[in-house]
Amino acid sequence: MAEPEKTDSGSRYEDIHFVDSTKAVWNYSLFTEEDIRNFQAGTHYSLYHLFGSRPVTVLDTEGYYFAVWAPNATTVSVKGNFNDWNNDTHPLYVRLDRSGIWEGFIPHMKKGEVYKYCIQGFEGKSQDKGDPFAWFWERRPATASITWELNYQWNDKNWLDNRKQHNALNAPWSVYEVHLASWMRPDRNNEESYNSYAVIRERLVPYVKEMGFTHVELMPVMEHPFDGSWGYQGTGYFAPTSRFGDPQGFMDLVNALHQEGIGVILDWVPSHFPYDSHGLYMFDGTHTYEYADMRKGFHPDWNSYIFNYRRGEVKSFLISSARYWFDKYHIDGIRVDAVSSMLKLNYSRSTGQWEPNEHGGDGNLEAIAFIKDLNETIFRDFPDVQTIAEEATDWPGVSRPTFDDGLGFGMKWMMGWMHDTLDYFKLDPVYREYHQDQFTFSMMYYYDENFMLPLSHDEVVHGKSPMLYKMPGDDWQKFANLRLLYAYMFTHPGGKLLFMGNEFGQTSEWNYKSELDWFLLQYDSHKLLKECVKDLNHLLRNEPALYENQFNIYGFEWVDLNHRAESVIAYRRKGKDPENDLLVILNMTPVVRRDWKIQVSGKEKWKEVFNSDDKKYWGTGDVYNPDVISSPIDEKEKTFELTVHLPPLGAVVFK
User: Fold this and answer.
1) Is 337 one of the annotated active-site residues of the chain?
2) May I ask the CATH architecture of the domain 12-146?
3) Chain CA centroid to CA 3, Å
4) Which CATH number describes the domain made up of 553-654?
């Protein structure tokens, strides 16, 4: 049979093969020689256009094209309900260029067919694997991939056209971290019950809008087999989980958030993957995706496997995955999980369990190069988004550009601030005067990175207690302390991140099997704490001094650190216009301090714009500042003494 002409898209045909007259597999390819070179070199960042299963028309025949990388396989076939899970009926054809890619076209294949690859691999071992590039998977515990299409009519053009101003470093960042399954369930006591993407959209979007958060961060939505991993042990790097519906359902959720002016950040995990038999581990009978040397390839903390960042094909796979979510799902950022574990060869390893790099150091040079390429690619192709690192060491330049010898992230989680702040607030107020340096230490190194302040899911699990019960004292003091903590967080420079439930004072640790304790909102203490967080969000968004200079030295100034015994701390937040400056005073003890004197410069007249002790937040409402008395100290130098009243365990913001 003569070779057909090439299609307009540049796709080409090899010889056409027929298994028999009814179950034909045609050897058909979408790859060009340049695709293969870039794939192997680790520089092909849109592999989702080539690998996996996708609908195509060949010789006027509709069907699905399949392509999978299995370099050490001896045979590969596609199996599923459509061929009664027969290992031999629909073989794929290995390319002759030694790329290790197996491919083929199955005519008449329909959307929605479940399938796996039967891979005969090293030493004759046969195993059934899901598709690493699948767009859709069966709902767990089933493990097959599903043929699908990504057609969708987006209605978020206005957001995309203007999101640069929302995702910029000089914009307000208040992120609501969400675990979709346990935010709200149809049956709170049934871990097998999930709301659909449609129901989540109907409930989550207006809630986030009402609360004033600028972004949501979704704990991993990529397909994963085990709920207890919270999504951080993934098998589907190109598929939103089917627990809540199909890919278009997730697109609807992103679209709806964008229409309400809310950005979407996805947790993304390029650091490790699980050993589930249908996943990436030992994909073709050998260490295909992971390092073969288990000193580099096995993660002792999470009992999982580490990607081989040296291998070009793996690097292309991972960066294509990150890029895919920006391209196909219009997301606004990724928060890259466990960056510390990627950077260090000796991470969680003792002497003898790791081998130094070629320079004798402990850095994983291949992972470092991968991270830099990842960030350069994302910011090149999507300049109005952000990448955020979860990195807990003192590794330099995590959020500095790669041309300045940095890793190239836009922001980094400020883990030191989180630990120091929580340790301070856990103290009985009587002891806080002795720990002021710990509380203020964050500003000593704040300008080293572009920091986001995280009060994340990790702080309310595994016996760490919910945020409310970290606070000392009786119920009133616990709530007052928590309002004070949140006011400090929202007026400290940097982005903010608050895990779901923190906003209303969840009284139990987060449990992925259940849902948030929404019933608590019947009580004023919890309902009004939620109002406090809501108002802090709006204060952040409405006061340029809180965000315009949040990552540079012009945005913050200590005003008073000289009252340790009273545990009163004051600082100034400064925007581009001095008229917008804010004065923040924190009273860290339950002692009311009336007629408190403080010296300020610049402006004579100030007014109270936020008071965490307000009755509308379940505070006493007894200590406030309807008028601020101002006395000149030096009119020429424009210095003044203010006389203000400080509520117990309270934060007051003046403008």
Assistant:
1) yes
2) Sandwich (2.60)
3) 48
4) 2.60.40.1180
**Are 613 and 650 a contacting pair, CB within 8 Å?**
yes
The whole-angstrom separation of Cα 272 and Cα 300 is 11
* 603 pLDDT tier (thresholds 50, 70, 90): confident
Structural domain boundaries of the chain? 12-146, 553-654
Q: Once rounded to an integer, what is the mean pLDDT over residues 291-312?
A: 94
DSSP string for residues in 164-213: HHHHSTTS--EEEEE-HHHHS-SSTT-TT----HHHHHHHHHHHHHHHT-
The C-alpha atoms of residue 455 and residue 486 are separated, in whole angstroms, by 10
506 neighbors 182 (Cβ within 8 angstroms)? no
- DSSP class of residue 457 equals G
Q: Given the structure tokens 């420079």, which residue do they identify?
A: 493
| Mean pLDDT in residue range 501-510 | 97
Annotated catalytic residue: which of 35, 113, 332, 337? 337
* Cβ-contact 607, 655 below 8 angstroms: yes
Number of H helices, E strands in the chain: 15, 30
Band of pLDDT at residue 20, cut at 50, 70 and 90: very low
Report the predicted TM-score, pTM, of the whole model to 2 decimal places: 0.94
Tokens representing 166? 């929302």
Report, in angstroms and rounded to the nearest whole number, the Rg of the chain calculated over CA atoms.
28
Domain 12-146 and domain 553-654, same fold? Reply is yes
CA distance 524 to 508: 18
Q: Which residues face 593 on adjacent strands? A: 646
C-alpha 329 chain-centroid distance: 14
What single DSSP character describes residue 269?
-
Q: Which of 290, 390, 391, 608 is catalytic?
A: 390
Angstrom CA distances, 67 to 80, 93, 283, 296, 436, stand at 16, 9, 14, 29, 60
CA–CA distance, 104 with 116 (Å, rounded to integer): 14
